[in-house]
Write a structure and sequence with these properties.
Elements lengths: L8 H33 L5 H35 L7 H28 L7 H7 L1 H16 L3
Helix pairs in contact: 1-2, 1-3, 1-4, 2-3, 3-5
């Protein structure tokens, strides 16, 4: 597995693919709660609600879920190739934040299913606030990964 040793071209390609997957994941994580806000504003059983249901489902199945899977698979490959990451304090905190982000993803997916059943979980205000969570987390995650403060 020399082709994925830290610093090798293979490792750097894996790292680049990981970053690309994170970008796609975050795009979806920032957009889905906005769709939930619009969903709350839409007339029940109306044309807009139908369109939003399709967008929510497609966003999860085509972008969010595959990106999440890619993020984790590529991260695991990098950790296996560079187990020294576990000896760095910043990495533990970053990993905790990524697990939290993954939990938010699951929460979003569960609520998308509720919307699909005709429910309107939580409030419009709640989804506006939830829209900020992934943004704050990704800022902290990137700062930890780049600055490596501890």
């Amino acid at each position: 597995m020399d082709f994925i040793l830290p610093g090798s071209i293979g490792y750097l390609v894996i790292k680049a693919l990981h970053i690309i997957a994170v970008i796609f994941w975050m795009a979806g994580m920032l957009y889905l709660p906005r769709l939930f806000v619009y969903h709350h504003q839409a007339q029940t059983a109306g044309e807009l609600e139908g369109a939003l249901l399709i967008q929510e489902r497609n966003l999860l199945k085509i972008i969010l879920n595959p990106a999440l899977i890619a993020v984790w698979i590529l991260a695991i490959i990098m950790i296996v190739a560079n187990p020294g990451l576990f000896s760095q304090g910043w990495f533990h905190f970053k990993l905790l934040l990524v697990v939290l982000m993954s939990g938010i993803h699951g929460f979003y997916a569960a609520n998308a299913k509720k919307f699909a059943k005709g429910e309107r979980p939580r409030s419009e205000k709640f989804w506006r606030i939830m829209n900020e969570g992934p943004a704050i987390l990704v800022i902290l995650i990137v700062l930890l990964a780049v600055v490596k403060p501890f």
